[in-house]
């Protein structure tokens, strides 16, 4: 089990463009075409599976919303911050 991050740690460690909504880190990625977003979603799904830490992914027209939280811990942990940074790198 991972430890929950404090409010200060979340603010310091969360990558730019990610927002905190309650117990989740959230970002909407925008794309020029629908299929680009679908490809991105598939890519982050692979990263998440490798890390065995699975976000909520919502695919829309030219955008993908990603929500990260550690359900088993009840909030945001280092796992979430690390995946957010990896997803940014892929984008």
UniProtKB/TrEMBL annotation:
Organism: Halomarina halobia
Organism taxonomic ancestry: Archaea, Methanobacteriati, Methanobacteriota, Stenosarchaea group, Halobacteria
Catalytic activity: (4aS,6R)-4a-hydroxy-L-erythro-5,6,7,8-tetrahydrobiopterin = (6R)-L-erythro-6,7-dihydrobiopterin + H2O
Similarity comment: family membership: Belongs to the pterin-4-alpha-carbinolamine dehydratase family.
InterPro entries: PCD_sf, Pterin_deHydtase
Ranges of compositional bias, category Acidic residues: 1-10
Chain intervals for the UniProt region annotation (Disordered): 1-21
HAMAP family: Pterin_4_alpha
Source organism, top-level taxon: Archaea
Record's protein name: Putative pterin-4-alpha-carbinolamine dehydratase
Keyword Lyase belongs to the record: yes
Keywords assigned: Lyase
Chain segments annotated as coiled-coil in the UniProt record: none
Keyword Transcription applies: no
CDD domains for this protein: PCD_DCoH (cd00488)
Composition bias type Basic and acidic residues, residue spans: 11-21
Gene3D superfamilies linked to this entry: Transcriptional coactivator/pterin dehydratase
Pfam family, one: Pterin_4a
Group of enzyme by EC: lyase
